[in-house]
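Appendix B. Chain record.
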Amino acid sequence: MEGEIWGVLSTFADFLGLVCCLGALVCRLWAFPPDFKNSDPVAARLLLSPIWLLFGGGIVLLAISSIAQFILRVSAMTGRPITEISPVLPTILLQTHYGRGWMLRAIMVPLLFAGWALARKGHYARTTTTISASHAGSTAIWLCCTMGGSLSAATQ
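Structure tokens predicted for this chain:
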């Protein structure tokens, strides 16, 4: 029962992080014109700072929840307690669909962080959109791999 609670919390944090990132990005791109930062710098700083803070918080949630979900999933896949999963980590990462999907996600979260850092410096519209779209795609791939494994296990 306790493991299920951690799984639910990590999944909730994952979705919350994704919603924060996508919501902040959509708000920035649709609510403010591209030249808003140049037209009124004081208002731009006051209005855009909370949006970028939300975006950064979402990235942090995605990173933490990704690691937590990976650890919990490896523990569930192997039947071992969390403290004893380190010997099987390379096997899970390299030889399972879940591991490959997680490695893709582990690459995309730092790229999303890089896009956030560039966007805060003013190179925001195209860079952040591209990286966020890539992250959304990798998340979709990861979810498909995860659900495919769960569905095949449930039908056997």
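Further analysis of this model is presented in Appendix C.
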